[in-house]
Amino acid sequence: MCGIVGAISERNVVPMLLAGLQRLEYRGYDSSGLALSSTGHFDRVRVNGRVADLAAKAQGQTALAGLAHTRWATHGAPTELNAHPHLGGDSVLIVHNGIIENHNALRAELQAQGYRFTSETDSEVIAHLVHHYLERANDLLAAVQATVGRLTGAFAIGVLSRDFPDRVICARRGSPLVLGLGFGEQFFASDIAALLPVTQRMIYLEEGDLAELRRNEVRIYNAAGESVTRQARTVDVAADSADLGHYRHYMQKEIFEQPTAIANTLQRVVELGCQSALFGPEADALFAAAPAVRIVACGSSYHAGLVARYWIEEWTGLPVSVDIASEYRYRKGREQDGTLIIAISQSGETADLLAAMRSARERGDVKVLAICNVPHSTLTRESDLLFLTQAGLEIGVASTKAFTTQLVALYVFAAALARSRKTLEAAQLTEITDALHRLPVLVEEVLAMDSKLEAWAQELAHYHNALFLGRHTLFPIALEGALKLKEIAYIHAEGYAAGELKHGPLALVDEDMPVIACAVNDELLEKVVSNLREVQARSGKVFLLAEPGCESAHEGSHRVLTLPAAAGPLAPVVLTLPLQMLSYHTACRKGTDVDKPRNLAKSVTVE
């Protein structure tokens, strides 16, 4: 979950490395560092702090090749000694994203050879191993190849040597890495966001790849050590998409980008309708024959999958299971042949999800549909079918526009599946599709209610706990709302199906327990009202978010916010927005670091 950047150029790379690192700081911010190299110059700069602190310490430094790292601590506390880059012998510097599982055995072996370790990290073994093999062969490429052959675990690494100032080596296994191609300069990074200011020509390294970067060329080798060619692509993402503009935080910016993100995601749907062709040429046959659907995901993506289960089951009658990827991968059950595995990820590089997808393939003759926001990611390359959301860069750690575009993609999938299986009348499918056309405008109208949620947040910020309630498709939205409040405002919160109140959580309700409830005007409304009465009878304060037509729920509620219009089956998307705004303003009121909440990072690329 760390962020790494590397560069070799005919000009000073330090400003480029620091700018790239600032764009990756959402991946880790416990400490940061630079490795710098030119002919006759070899140095590192490290701080137990953020990139701004590193930039201040590195002021005046110049180099023609370098590495940069921002850390999310796993092995060893956030200290300067544990900060990257790590030194191997006296001539090798490395940066590393991932976890080396056999680091204890390697450390013991290297210590026996006389290597002295100065950090608690698993990463330092890589630096000493490269130095060890370099001493044997005086060939940096061969030394790195030998080193990665000894490593067990997940990694993306960058390597710099004092004795080879004309090259930088990088390699990946299990963690993402992308190359950036320039003129007289080459780059690598763990995320394209770091490279957008300097190039839009990218090469996505495949599993096991190693690359040698020189100023005027890039050479790539596969896991077997064979020279290979990987396709270079022009990435159509503007560099300024990572800029804050007039917004205070990236999360706020990304909340207000949702109408555009949703409209972009729906562009082909508007042209084609909810057709199986949106997912790939083989989708119609696979959809028609599938005996079951299993959804695997993590975090907010898991909540999106829980919502989709209701749509899929209602519109197709197929059995649907939803699994947390990190749990699914260690279960032993078989999969029925033909099962559709829906793998959901913003980044397409989530380690547990990739492992779960591969595990599913081992359990039966399944097909994988990826719903992802990043083209050319590992998930998209390994899937059979694909739907790309069009959320654009999402930098805030708490998912906002990625989550709502996932919901939209899953809604389209459920409708396309029903069309392929002929389980809905034409009029029903038309109604489902028409709801999508109205969605971006309705989202705009809900966002216009931001100031009202800010007023709620002034009150909510004084509490230490909160309950979120919903029924049917709004139960997972209650889970998502609680997650957002925990993530960025550090308020303990739990999401519940409203009918579960009497099965335990009602014991917690008193005047110090705010209850945030979501309601829509459907057949379950009066049951939700009964649940709210139970809260009110115990002096609980109800903060009600409701569609029009839910007036029976207003009575006795402490605060009520009525949405501009009903969204029908898309209510989970629309009701997500006020929960995001409420959490955002609560976090601002409490003074937390909204975009970089403590102990969290954006992309979980290690188990």
| Rg measurement, Å | 25 Å
pLDDT averaged residue by residue: 91
Strand order of the largest sheet: 3-2-4-1-10-9-11-15
Structural class: alpha/beta
The number of helices is: 19
* Fraction in helix: 25-40%
Task: Tell me, briefly, the overall form.
Answer: globular
The fraction of residues assigned to DSSP E strands is 15-25%
The number of E-state strands comes to 25
**Ends distance:** 10 Å
Low-confidence segments, given as residue ranges, are: none
**Biggest sheet overview:** 8 strands, antiparallel
Structure description:
36% of the residues lie in helices and 23% in strands. The chain is built from 19 helices and 25 strands. Helix 7 (258-265) packs antiparallel against helix 15 and helix 10 (299-316) runs antiparallel to helix 17.
Task: Fill in the keyword field for this structure.
607 residues, alpha/beta, eight-stranded antiparallel β-sheet, seven-stranded antiparallel β-sheet, 23% strand, aminotransferase, cytoplasm, glutamine amidotransferase, transaminase activity
